[in-house]
Write a structure and sequence with these properties.
There is one protein chain. By secondary structure, this protein is mainly α. It is elongated, with a radius of gyration of 17 Å. It is built from six helices and no strands. Helices cover 40% and strands 0% of the residues.
């Protein structure tokens, strides 16, 4: 079975079916863009098993966080302040606000998207917002509505 972990065709088929199968792939295949993209397309949190270099690949990270905002926690630091990526993450999962760069926690549109998508949890994402936005009427209203 060890030799199968390095077989590109087998690994690609496996991650296409179950993204988390990436964790069992040979190291060289964890840095294969096509394989990692297939894995995060299926399961955003598979980003955690990708090679470090691909955790800063914009296309891969955007795909991952669009599927699961939670995946933002595994992204390269520079992408945690990328507006499009952050907005996709918090829209998918408001709790992802916890993982964004501090500079983004004061962005009204981003915080509003986070608390809106987090309504089923009572707007608890609000606690990760910058203090200035915790008293913003529109954001608080969105969090509690």
């Amino acid at each position: 079975a060890e030799s199968m972990k390095g077989d590109r065709e087998i690994v690609l088929a496996a991650v296409t079916k179950d993204g988390s199968a990436l964790q069992f792939a040979a190291g060289s295949l964890k840095s294969d863009q096509e394989i990692v993209l297939a894995a995060v397309s299926r399961s955003g949190s598979a980003l955690q098993f990708a090679a470090e270099s691909l955790k800063s690949d914009r296309e891969i990270v955007l795909t991952a966080v669009s599927r699961s905002g939670y995946a933002l926690r595994f992204a390269g630091e520079s992408l945690k302040s990328d507006r499009e990526i952050v907005l996709a993450a918090v829209t998918s999962d408001g709790f992802a606000l916890r993982s964004v760069a501090e500079s983004m926690k004061g962005d009204q549109e981003i915080v509003l998207a986070a608390v809106t998508s987090d309504r089923q949890c009572g707007g608890s994402a609000l606690r990760f917002a910058a203090d200035t936005l915790k008293s913003d009427r529109d954001i608080v209203l969105a969090a509690v509505s």
